[in-house]
Amino acid sequence: MNKFLSHWKTWLLLLPGVGTILLLMGSTFYMVIAQSFGYHNMMGESGFSLEFWNEALADAKLHKSLLYSIKVSVIGALGAVAMAYPLVLWLRKPFPGSSTITGLLRAPMFIPGLVAAFLLVNVISYHGVLNQMMMAIGLIDKPIRMQNDDFGWGVIILQVWKQLPFAMILLAGAVNSIRNDVLDAAADLGANTWRKFTGIIFPLSVPALQVALILIFIGALGDYSFYSIAGPKNTYSLSMLMHITSTEFMEWNKGAVVAVVIMVTAVLAAIAISLLTAPLAQKKGKLK
Fold first, then answer.
1. Which residues contact 160 (CB under 8 A, 6 or more apart)?
2. What are the sequence ranges of the domains in the chain?
3. Residue 16's CB: how many other CB atoms inside 10 A?
4. 253-263 tens-digit pLDDT
């Protein structure tokens, strides 16, 4: 009886926080999903209908936006993580100036996305800093279009720049938790730097890698500011398509369909990332 009462007391203590979260998130999810099926219309009568789903799913713009958003999110997440690993390993052992370098690398976290987009546009624009530097060292003969390019490299660069500090924080916690005597033992067994990374550091940091990839992917998938400023002019991202459909064309139900597509894509991507990266946490074999 005492255990039963203790169990319910625990749930009652969690109720204010959990209840508030469920109320806010649950009501939002319900509203979006219900509107996508014809309920709670902003204008006209409300009622169950698959019309909005049929129209949205048959629209080529949605297909193009979905592929474009997934492409940018995947490349942006992989790019941020790929750059974060060497930086985290470099800063693992403190050295003079390491704190300053870490602070500078984390600076993008404190800059709002819209402000960061306008600032970075000056760097990646046709006559921006990056093109001028590459021309000065002879890497290219003429400027390369990175802003509003058809592939979306401008948005990808912005996403990597913005998400790099977040990836570093997550990966640093996992990498710094690995004891030095484990790495020293691997070195005594003949492991070089690369083998220590692939055989010890990377497998032990896979859980943090999963979290970083999932959160960065979801953040990039739903981002609006970078896509609207640096993205191509002939393709909308999912967030832009949702905004334009809802506010400019006043088709709130179709906009809700796009919102549900974003949420479903995020969930499926999280599952896929978890399944694909889980085997990487198991490293078997002898050190050579």
1. 76, 79, 80, 83
2. 60-281
3. 9
4. 999 999 999 99
